[in-house]
Amino acid sequence: MVALPDYRSIRFRFYTPIGVEDVHLEDASIAGRWKKNTTRYYGVKEKTLAERFANCRRESADIQRFTEGYGPLAGNPYTEREFKFSLESWRGSQDEFCKFWNVLVRARAPGGYQPLEGNAIEIRDRWLHFRCGALWTFMTLELLSRPEKTRVCLRPNCKQRYFIAQHGKERYCSPECGNWSQAQLKKRWHKEQRQKRELAKRQRATKSR
Description:
- The protein is of the alpha+beta class.
- It has 2 domains: 6-173, no CATH class; 174-209.
- The protein has 5 helices and 7 strands.
- Strands 3-2-1-5-4 form a 5-stranded mixed sheet. Strands 6-7 form a two-stranded antiparallel ribbon.
């Protein structure tokens, strides 16, 4: 029997520090400060941070609310006290992130990813804890940890189109969009049945002449 290396059984978690204050709009930028005591964010069960970011509205107020909740996309409290970024750079990052999401949906196997600077690893309670150097790194790792579950909702103009599937057959982000799909199928079926009846009626009229 060949013994596996000890590290093959090590449990791994990743987190990002969150906790900001005085987040405000400055012309076309968002500025703020990191709190002295930040919180470790490992994610929540309801929805991944990656989903929240990809589906976030692009208005300045929405970007500000996202930043108030989670912080800036780049940088961390261990390397800086204050932060500032332009709204356009945030929107550009969102565009790039959605492109990356679509790559995972199509290919399931992206190319190499180089994490940003500021990462650190520690051991806590027999777990390896990877501290992401930026929010961007954390969200990317969320997607890379389960690329086969990344989805884009098939409903046109869906406002929450980027989502993580709970099972392999999901194609719509919510029951609402799933119900929309069923309604479309019913409409198509009724239309086809109506067309068949009209065709049969015309054929009978032709034969009776």
